[in-house]
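Our preliminary data section would be incomplete without showing what the modeling component actually yields. Below, a chain of 202 amino acids is followed by its predicted structure, encoded as tokens that our downstream tools consume directly.
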Amino acid sequence: MPAGIRTDVDNESDTEILSYGAHHFRSYLPIMADLDTAMLTTIALSPMAAARPIVFEVSRLILVIGFATMGFSSCSHQGPQTIEDAVRSNDASSVAAFLERGSGPDLGSDGSGLLHVATGPYGGNDVLSLLLHAGAQPNFTDPHTGDTALMNAAMWVNLEAVRILVAAGADQRIDEAIELTGDAGGLEQAVIDYLRKVKQER
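Predicted structure:
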């Protein structure tokens, strides 16, 4: 008998693993669709399986692979559930899909300002540009924070987002945006200088 091959099932964890794996693996093989979890587990734990250790070990492997495949498939097919989730992921294609289905470009389903989300730490300039192109108001004030998207972009020192918003018409509360940028120096200084220039030109 090859070394390392198990021929016994001597604890409850084996039964639990096989039972759980069998339950989920059925959906991946149509031929197994009519077999219930108890039957699959019984087959895997039967004396015949124990008498044929290779078959038993392969059965265990198949069930584990089925379980792993189920988890991967579940994760890979799960997309953003709301437009604000898509914005946080900088998922422009999903944002576009939500907009086509009737979602507005200003507010998410949770009441958050979408431009504010896009200019935060989990947003992105791709979705920011898309929302503005779809008609989002560049000076929109987030209901939760009371800040404009320009203020938020400045606070996160996102110079590119600041430029995008200004180009789209964001021109309110610039002084507050400058204050939120923080200490002068480095990229913060670049944002401050740009906003001061915008203010002078307006």
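Residues 53-76 form the longest helix (24 residues). Confidence is low (pLDDT under 50) at residues 4-37, 48-52, 67-76. Preliminary results of this kind motivate Aim 1 of the renewal.
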